[in-house]
Amino acid sequence: MNRPLSWFNITSLTLGFTFLYLPMVILIIYSFNASKLVTVWAGFSTKWYVRLLHDEQFLDAAWVTLKVAVCSSTLATILGTMAAYALVRMRRFPGRTLFSGMVYAPLVMPDVIIGLSLLLLFIAIGLDRGVFTIVLAHTTFAMCYVAIVVSSRLTSFDESLEEAALDLGCTPFDAFKSVTLPIIAPAVISGWLLSFTLSLDDLVIASFVTGPSSTTLPIKIFSSIRLGVNPEINALSTIMIGLVTVGVLVASLVSRNTIAKREREELEANLAPVTEPAMASVTEGVVRDEEIEDARASGARG
Amino acid sequence: MNLRRLLIVIVPYAWLVGLFLIPFLIILKISLSDTAIAIPPYTPTLDLSAGWAGIKEFFSELDLENYYFLWTDSLYWKSFVSSITIATISTFLTLLVGFPIAYAMARAPSAWRPTLMMLVILPFWTSFLIRVYSWMGILSTNGFLNNFLMWTGLIDSPFHILNTPTAVYIGIVYTYLPFMILPIYSTLEKMDISLLEAAEDLGCTSRSAFWLVTVPLARYGIIAGCFLVFIPVNGEFVIPSLLGGSRINMIGKVLWDEFFNNRDWPVASAVAIILLLILVVPIVLFQRVQQKQEEATV
Predict the structure, then answer these.
(1) Is residue B44 part of a domain?
(2) Is residue B41 in some structural domain?
(3) CATH of the domain at B134
(4) With contacts defined as CB-CB under 8 Å, which chain A residues touch B141?
């Protein structure tokens, strides 16, 4: 099926990826511009980076953003995993339709509405606005993303594995810890990463629910670029783009290695099914099989 | 159901009721209230200590006045119309740009595909704000694009692109492109190439095979991509405020201004409710398409 690409396809790929990446490349190049006029090149300089790293306001905002992102993505991962478990494993409980509606709705709800509604709630109950309210708001919408990611993983794995563990004398918590959790772990981790990025990225909801004392990085960036291009923001953007790129590259390398390792294990398992120690715990064996299935599936996909 | 299973349901349930459902009911209630110069700036407030009479009085003071106001003031319905228009046109433009890219990705050698996928997803992980911002430097009057065009001698005086609808369209197509490419790519990738060969054997030209075979097979991806762009663009705030200038009024921006600049909470709430009513139709349609697609793949 590997036919050579037609000229039309090569052109669309080239133009498409140029369109996606050129603006960011220009942004990065101009962050090293010595001139304050961002569009006139006046030689190489790193002075905007130096200035940025001495800007107390930016450093404070970065710190607030990081705190919010870590707290809210951790909370969201716990709540979202619970919600996914409830949706997939418990087919009947009172108000299930409302529950699944509430899990899906925030995914399509415009940010302005989520932000406004939460602010009105916080005012109604007299909660002081600041880092805490931003964490509550981010957790609420991020847990829905986690629930979706984790529930798709939960649906695809065999419930009888859990039942087997229970039959073999595991307590429900042990069964969850040693059977379910290892299998859904990749989805839980990507759910955490997704919530983390969503929290780092959010301008609109944070602007509604924040108080006067806590400014997040997106709020700070927005207020300084509203009036035009600003070289310090170019430097900040370059740092952020760099961090994300490194993060994504590392994540994809790690997942490729994991798949390769699983394929190796699969090969060994196929070569030596008899010599497999018979004493190995049943649960472990079952999990390994499931993982191999998975590696096969992802191998087929890749 | 034992206690532990009960807890697994109750905790996230209570969280979503408290921080999603109740806030939403508050918006609904405030949108039916009257604006007042007070803190909070609306009346009536629900006073439960007055008992049943208080509740009755509370409901009798709610009315549709704010919605009537939105209807009579042309600023609001014009910005609703302009949001929907901008969302429709930009969805079409994103499809136009995104389809060829998704198509070429699906036809690329399979060894390239993971890398191409990663290249499409990478911008999605970078800050939305930064991606919109990157166009401000390119499109401004003395920006990169104008400097480049004047340097090549194609134009003598700079274009005004920033703060026009064109800039908003460019911004939307740029930031929402991955949402269009990914669903289309995933349907095209599963397509069996031999179907095209069969169509050509049976006398189709490659152009008509494209319209008769490829496009119908990719329809779920195309529809999903269009909804994924259309729905959020309607509530977009960042792009019109940074690239559109003061003349572009999209509804997300009107809501923002109404709340932060005019401090008119009841009107802002009514704007939010109407925006939601507009989006309910595409959201429901989108979920039905998703279900159909899932049934088709099973």
Answers:
(1) no
(2) no
(3) 1.10.3720.10
(4) none
Whole-angstrom Cα distance, residue B167 to residue B275? Answer: 23
Give the chain B residue whose CA is nearest to the CA of A221. B129
B86 vs B230: CA distance, rounded Å? 9
What's the rounded Cα separation, in Å, for the pair A177 and A170?
10
Cα Rg, chain A, nearest whole Å: 24
Residue (of B270, B278, B249) closest to B70 by Cα position: B270
CATH architecture, domain A49-240+278-301: Orthogonal Bundle (1.10)
Q: Tell whether B25 is covered by a domain.
A: no
Query: B35 forms bridges with which residues in the sheet?
Result: B42
The pLDDT score that the predictor gives to residue B149 is 85
Q: Compute the distance between CA of residue A84 and CA of residue B63 in angstroms, rounded to an integer.
A: 39
| A interface test, pick of B20, B233, B265, B291 with most A CB neighbours within 10 Å | B20
Question: Which H or E run includes B34?
Answer: strand B34-35
Query: How far lies A256's CA from each of A109, A300, B185, in Å?
Result: 34, 13, 21
In chain B, positions 220-259, which contact chain A (CB-CB < 8 Å)?
A: 231-232, 234-238, 241-242, 252, 255-256, 259
What is the number of structural domains in chain B?
Answer: 1
Of residues A219, A247, A245, A244, the one with CA closest to residue A233: A219
**Angle A217-A221-A226 from CA coordinates, rounded to 5°:** 155
Q: Are B253 and B80 in contact (CB under 8 A)?
A: no
Class of residue A137 by CB neighbours under 10 A (exposed 0-12, middle 13-18, buried 19+): buried
- The helix (run of H) or strand (run of E) holding residue B149 is helix B144-152
Determine which helix (DSSP H) or strand (DSSP E) holds B42, and give its type and residue range: strand B42-43
In a domain, B190, yes or no: yes
- Residue A63 token pair: 């710190």
Tokens of A86: 């409830």
Q: Which residues have C-beta within 8 Å of that of residue B52, sequence separation ≥ 6?
A: none
Peptide bond into A94 cis (omega under 30): no
Residue B44: name the closest of A119, B68, B55, B52 by CA: B55
Q: pLDDT per residue over B70-121, tens digit each?
A: 888 888 888 999 999 999 999 999 999 999 999 999 988 888 888 898 899 8
Identify the weakest region by mean pLDDT among B8-22, B29-43, B198-212, B246-260: B29-43
Domain ranges of chain A: 16-45, 49-240+278-301
The ipTM estimated for the assembled molecules is: 0.85
Q: Tell me which residue range forms the domain holding B96.
A: 64-297
Write out pLDDT tens, residues A15-47.
999 999 999 999 999 889 888 776 677 788 888
